[in-house]
Amino acid sequence: MELSDSVVKGLQTLADPAYMDFKSFRIFTEAAFHSLLAFPTHSVLDYPELKNIDQALLKHCHIAATTFILEGVKQNADRSTICSCLEDLRFDSERVDAFYELYQKSKTNLEKLLSSIDRCPPHITDVSWRLDYCIKNSHVHKVNQPSYLISFNTENGENTGASSELNFSCTLEQLQDLVGKMKDAAKSVERATQL
Amino acid sequence: MEEVDRILIHSLRQAGTDIDEDVQSVKQFSSELIVQAVVRCLRVIDPAVGSGLSPSLPPGMSARFRVGMSLAQACQDLGYKGEIGYQTFLYSNEPEIRSLLMFLVEKLPRESAEVSDQPAGKSALLQKAIAAQIKAQLAMPWLPPSCRLPLHRKTQSPGPCHSFRAQPLSLPYSLKVPAKKQSKEVKEYWREYLLPVTSQPSQAASVPASLLENHVSELSAAQEWENEWNSQGLLSRLTPEDYRSRKRMRLQKRIEEQLRAAAQPRPDTHNATRSTSDLSELLNSFAGATTGGDVLTKGTRFTHSEKFTFTQEPEKAAQQMAAAASALPSSHQSEEDLKAQQEAEFTALQQQLQQLSVQMEEVGGDIRQLTVSIHQVSDELKQREVHNLEKENTIKVKKQTIDLLPDAENNLIKLQSLVEASSKRVVHLASQWEKHRAPLIDEHRRLKELCSNREMESSRKLSEIKDLHDKIRQSAEEAKKKESLYKQLITEYETLPKDVSRSAYTMRILEIVGNIKKQKEEITKILSDTKELQKEINGLTGKLDRTFAVTDELVFKDAKKDESVRKSYKYLAALHENCTQLIQTIEDTGSIMREIRDLEEQIETENGKKTVSNLEKILEDYKAIRQENSALAAKIREG
Question: Which of B30, B62, B131, B463 could bridge across to A195 with cysteines, CB 3.0–4.6 Å?
Answer without folding.
Answer: B131
